[in-house]
């Protein structure tokens, strides 16, 4: 399986741990491949520093932490768009370019497009439950 | 660390074989990962004290994505 995690997952991993960490670890343990893009990594850094509680160093280190475990994909120009919110389009396009099975996000505009072509767009909670149902997470 | 010391390290790195360079990169990544884990523990403590939860994270991402 191939998975694309939206920024929600990585910020949650850094700041909450718990289920976000568990789902990423379970994905890796299952041998599923994780894809990412600079758009998400840039956003991860921007969100962490926007909170002002956390240092630029931690934000930058979080970026490297994510990048080490994924395959980076470049977003290309594409006809695919998120009509309700064009700012979400790079996420959708990169997921398509990577050919992922799952796009995990808590973005309501993206979730409303599920399924999109062969991609299942699923919330963090939904993905967690899917991993549990498949016996990949307890 | 002084600039001279940094330059000396850079020279030593430049003299490494490809295999040694890969070992160095792996080791540096391990150190970076250990540091991230340490810092994440503290970040999660701060996030908990600040009341940051998944709903808040989702809202912040939504807001920043549209700035």
Report on the structure:
- The complex is a heterodimer of chains A (138) and B (67).
- In chain A, strand 4, helix 6 and strand 5 form a beta-alpha-beta unit.
- In chain A, helix 1 crosses helix 2, helix 2 crosses helix 7 and helix 3 packs antiparallel against helix 4.
- Chain A is globular, with a radius of gyration of 14 Å.
- With 138 residues, chain A is α/β, with parallel strands linked by helices.
- Chain A has a single domain, classed as Rossmann fold (3-Layer(aba) Sandwich), CATH 3.40.50.
- Chain A has a five-stranded parallel β-sheet.
- Chain A is built from seven helices and five strands.
- With 67 residues, chain B is mainly alpha-helical.
- Chain B has one domain.
- Chain B is 84% helix and 0% strand.
- Chain B starts with a helix and ends with a helix.
- The relative contact order of chain B is 0.06.
- The interface between A and B is medium-sized, with 29 and 23 residues.
At a glance:
The complex is a heterodimer of chains A (138) and B (67). Chain A has 138 residues and is of the alpha/beta class.
Stretches with pLDDT under 50, minimum 5 residues of chain A: none
Order of helices and strands of chain A: EHHEHHEHEHEH
CATH class designation of chain A = Alpha Beta
Oligomeric state:
heterodimer
Strand content of chain A: 5-15%
Examine the secondary-structure arrangement and name the CATH architecture of chain A. Answer: 3-Layer(aba) Sandwich
Mean pLDDT of chain A: 94
Of all protein chain pairs, which has the greatest interface, and how many residues does each chain bring to it?
A-B, 29 and 23 residues
How would the blueprint of this fold be written?
The complex is a heterodimer of chains A (138) and B (67).
Chain A: E1 2-5, H1 7-15, H2 18-29, E2 33-36, H3 38-50, H4 56-68, E3 71-72, H5 89-98, E4 102-104, H6 108-111, E5 120-122, H7 124-133
Parallel strand pairs in A: 1-2, 1-4, 2-3, 4-5
Chain B: H1 3-14, H2 18-49, H3 54-65
């Amino acid at each position: 399986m191939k998975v694309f995690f939206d920024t929600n997952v990585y910020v949650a991993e850094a700041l909450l741990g718990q289920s976000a960490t568990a789902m990423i670890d379970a994905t890796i343990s299952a041998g599923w491949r994780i894809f990412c893009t600079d758009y998400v990594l840039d956003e991860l850094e921007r969100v962490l520093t926007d909170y002002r509680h956390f240092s630029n160093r931690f934000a930058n280190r979080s970026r490297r932490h994510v990048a080490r475990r994924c395959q980076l994909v470049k977003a290309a120009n594409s006809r695919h768009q998120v009509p309700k919110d064009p700012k979400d389009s790079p996420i959708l396009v990169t997921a398509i370019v990577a050919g992922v099975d799952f796009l995990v996000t808590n973005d309501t505009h993206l979730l409303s497009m599920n399924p999109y072509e062969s991609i299942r767009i699923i919330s963090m909670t939904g993905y967690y439950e899917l991993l549990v149902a498949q016996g990949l997470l307890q | 660390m002084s600039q001279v010391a940094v330059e000396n390290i850079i020279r030593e790195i430049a003299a490494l074989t490809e295999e040694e360079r890969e070992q160095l990169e792996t080791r540096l990544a391990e150190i970076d990962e250990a540091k991230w884990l340490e810092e994440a523990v503290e970040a999660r403590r701060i996030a908990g004290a600040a009341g940051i939860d998944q709903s808040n994270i989702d809202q912040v991402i939504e807001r920043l994505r549209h700035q």
